[in-house]
Amino acid sequence: MSLQPDFIHEFIVGKSARTLVLLHGTGGNERDLIPVGHELDSGASLLSPRGKVLENGMPRFFRRLAEGAFDLEDLKARTHELADFVISAADHYKIDNRNIIAVGYSNGANIAASVFLLRPEIFAAAILFRAMVPLVPQTKPDLNAKHIWIGAGAYDPIVPSSNAKELVALLRSAGADVTIRFFQSGHELTPADVDDAREWLTHLRY
Ligand code: MLT
Fold first, then answer.
1. Which of 24, 32, 48, 106 is catalytic?
2. What is the mean pLDDT of residues 115-141?
3. Nearest CA to ligand 1 atom 5
4. What percent of the chain has pLDDT over 70?
5. CB-based burial label for 82 (10 Å; 0-12, 13-18, 19+)
6. CA of 205 to the centre of ligand 1 (A)
7. Residue 206 has what pLDDT?
8. Choice among 45, 48, 147, 156 that is catalytic
9. Catalytic: 106?
């Protein structure tokens, strides 16, 4: 008997073997990134969970103590919980588990980065909009053959450019192929981000 995926989520079956796992920002839900998922790859299946942590009623993927100050024990536990959800959903929906790409925005991008650092087997690649270093793992994961695109905001008041660059350095030091782009924006997601990420995804080979 297969495990039931235990997050509230949407699953939209696509025409290709690829699945995008969509991870929303603080205060979002499982419907937020569906249009972005279709824009990034109109043929892919979309799996979009809702974060289980509530901060003043706003869904998130892990607890924080303050902006940019994460509850690391909760983050680690939630990272494994999300990774296990992806595994059980892949089994349940008959998803090709070598062809799963994370697409995260803000808090969703941060937990996606954490999945790479703690459970590197889950995603083949990722598109991370406005991500920061979620944690520094005790043991460096093997991220060879992983491809990660990061979209940063040059004027982001939540993620300083230095932090986005630290994330790039951390992922590269573990062997990942990382592309970073800076956009003339703050923390918000822009059409230019989505265009650039789509272009990258179209040419991605793994
Ligand atoms: C986070 O808490 O993950 C980051 O501060 C981004 C946010 O959700 O505002």
1. 106
2. 98
3. 68
4. 98
5. buried
6. 30
7. 86
8. 156
9. yes
Outline where 102-155 has alpha helix (H).
107-118
What single letter denotes the amino acid at residue 143?
Answer: L
Averaged pLDDT score across all residues of the chain? 96
Cα-to-centroid distance, 112 and ligand 1 (Å) = 12
* pLDDT for residue 67 is more than 80: yes
129-154: buried (b, 16+ CB within 10 Å) or exposed (e) per residue? Answer: bbbbbbbeeeeebebeebbbbbbbbe
Helices (H), 21-151: 34-40, 72-92, 107-118
44: tokens are 């892919």
Per-residue pLDDT, averaged over 155-160, amounts to: 97
**At 148, which amino acid appears?**
I
SS3 168: helix
203 is catalytic: no
Other Cβ atoms closer than 10 A to 66? 6
- Give catalytic status of residue 187 as yes or no: yes
Q: What is the pLDDT of residues 93-114, one digit of tens each?
A: 999 999 999 999 999 999 999 9
The H helix count followed by the E strand count for the chain is 5, 11
| pLDDT value, residue 184 | 97
What pTM was computed for the model?
Answer: 0.97
Span from the CA of 15 to the centroid of ligand 1 (angstroms): 33
